[in-house]
Fold this sequence. Notes:
Elements: E1 4-8, H1 13-24, E2 28-33, H2 36-49, E3 56-59, H3 60-66, E4 69-72, H4 79-86, E5 94-97, E6 102-105, E7 108-111, H5 119-126, E8 131-134, H6 141-145, E9 153-159, H7 162-174, E10 178-182, H8 189-210
Parallel strand pairs: 1-2, 1-4, 2-3, 4-5, 5-8, 9-10
Antiparallel strand pairs: 6-7, 8-9
The chain binds NADP nicotinamide-adenine-dinucleotide phosphate (NAP).
NADP nicotinamide-adenine-dinucleotide phosphate (NAP) is lined by residues 9, 11-15, 33-35, 38, 73-78, 81-82, 98-100, 137, 140-141, 196.
Amino acid sequence: MQKLIGIIGGTGEEGIGIASRLVQSGENVCIGSRDPNKSDIISRKLRKINPNLKIQSATNLETAKISDLLFLTINPNGIEQLISDIKPYLDNKIIVDTTVPLKYNNGKFSHIEWPNGSSSLHIQALIPSAKVVSGFHTISAKDLNNLNKEINQDVFLASNDKVAKTKIFKIVNKIPNLRAIDCGNLDVSKYLESCTLLLLNINKIYSKKNKTPIHTGLKLSGLYKTENL
Ligand SMILES: NC(=O)c1ccc[n+]([C@@H]2O[C@H](COP(=O)([O-])OP(=O)(O)OC[C@H]3O[C@@H](n4cnc5c(N)ncnc54)[C@H](OP(=O)(O)O)[C@@H]3O)[C@@H](O)[C@H]2O)c1
């Protein structure tokens, strides 16, 4: 049976964008939300991308229960409460953490510090039995949601669990024009989360210069044999 990918907090721009690209590449998804009416609206839109797939919607709790692996795309303010709510269903599950805790002050984006050094490390500490893969931090929701756009960017992945990382690696490489990059173990997530801040600050500068919204992304040069881990 084909796997089901749950998107926890899948009603925000990043969750919808990731879900849309997954559906485009042939994956079954379940959109999770605190409010099942919200997730139902999103799942109806996703069915139009590929009516042949099994697109579902549910609460975050139900999504965690029925999905084979999860993407976490919630607002960082809700992480601790959410993890505590859905914890019974996270044992041994792969969780792709996309979250970037940040603040905006005096015209600049900067980090909110987490107890364990990064959002992904904090989540891993909250659920030691889960297989946290840190990723997608540098892919803008605006780009993901523009399905006519060839994104042509790298998706940086870090995890302490090599099998989990390999699974996500394969899922990413099925999405047209995205390339998965192995960044090592979960410690590296602090750098991945910081990359978003760099890009957001660059976006701000060049949106002003170009008088139009800019969404930058990253693609590495100089790599060979990136298809497999
Ligand atoms: N936007 C981007 O371009 C981008 C790029 C890279 C990474 N990210 C990261 O991806 C994540 C999602 O980004 P986004 O822009 O889609 O964020 P968002 O719109 O602020 O939040 C996404 C969803 O989180 C849920 N949520 C909000 N507050 C919550 C709370 N207190 N407790 C539980 N759930 C809550 C909401 O879903 P319900 O109301 O339906 O429950 C909301 O639709 C963020 O952590 C962000 O740092 C975003």
